[in-house]
């Protein structure tokens, strides 16, 4: 793989990531609600799922997963339902606090935040097919496959991680500067983002039928 080919790949991935998707919306929601550092667990879950999807593509499992229509549907709709439930719960819990009603809020574990990111990405198993279609466009047949595959995978994860971090940091920065009633609305918007992520996943599923 030449440097020019790698540069073209980077530009292609940047173009694909220019529009926020379900994972970006979830990252904004969790970072705005739980803080940027804890939100990074969500990004880690998303990138873990991406890495597994890339590995599956590299091992030639794309055709197998694409043929498993029933399994795809179950995974996708379970992820959609899970995100809607989380978003609705966040909106319902967003209430103004007074000195009399203020109580310590239960802290969402890092494992739970990681799982949310993982499930959101894994709810789109056809990403395996996407990677299986994308990578061959930039792989030189005359060179060894796996070194090129690893470079493409690492580049994608690095760029995706940078985008997720930028979205998460921005949401956290904004949320940290709002208190009281404004903070309640930030949390409600975060819940709306989560439901929006679920809607995007659902629309993707319906459009693939």
Describe this structure in words.
This protein is mainly α and 209 residues long. It has one domain (36-94, 108-207). It has nine helices and no strands. It has helices at residues 3-16, 22-34, 36-58, 62-67, 69-93, 110-122, 127-134, 145-176, 180-207. The longest helix is centred in the last third of the chain and has 32 residues, at 145-176. The chain is globular. It starts with a helix and ends with a helix.
Could you spell the SSE succession in H and E letters? HHHHHHHHH
Alpha carbon gyration radius: 19 Å
Task: Output the number of helix runs.
Answer: 9
Kindly name the structural category: mainly alpha
**Proportion of beta-strand residues:** under 5%
| Number of spatially distinct domains | 1
Could you say which overall geometry the principal axes of the C-alpha atoms support? globular
State the end-to-end CA separation: 36 Å
Major sheet description: none
Q: Mean pLDDT, as a whole number? A: 77
């Amino acid at each position: 793989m030449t440097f020019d080919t790698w540069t073209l790949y980077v530009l292609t991935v940047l173009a694909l990531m220019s529009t926020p998707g379900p994972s970006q919306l979830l990252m904004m929601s969790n970072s705005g609600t739980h803080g940027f550092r804890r939100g990074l667990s969500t990004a880690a879950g998303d990138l873990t799922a991406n890495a597994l999807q890339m590995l599956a593509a590299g091992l030639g499992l794309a055709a197998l997963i694409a043929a498993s229509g029933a399994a795809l549907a179950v995974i996708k709709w379970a992820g959609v339902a899970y995100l809607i439930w989380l978003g609705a719960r966040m909106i319902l819990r967003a209430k103004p606090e007074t000195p009399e009603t203020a109580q310590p809020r239960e802290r969402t574990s890092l494992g739970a935040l990681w799982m949310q990111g993982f499930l959101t990405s894994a709810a789109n198993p056809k990403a395996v097919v996407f990677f299986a279609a994308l990578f061959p466009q930039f792989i030189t047949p005359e060179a060894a496959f796996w070194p090129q595959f690893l470079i493409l995978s690492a580049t994608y994860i690095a760029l995706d991680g940078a985008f997720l971090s930028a979205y998460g940091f921005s949401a956290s920065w904004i949320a940290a500067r709002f208190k009281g009633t404004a903070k309640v609305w930030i949390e409600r918007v975060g819940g709306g983002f989560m439901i929006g992520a679920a809607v995007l996943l659902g629309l993707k599923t319906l459009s693939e039928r």
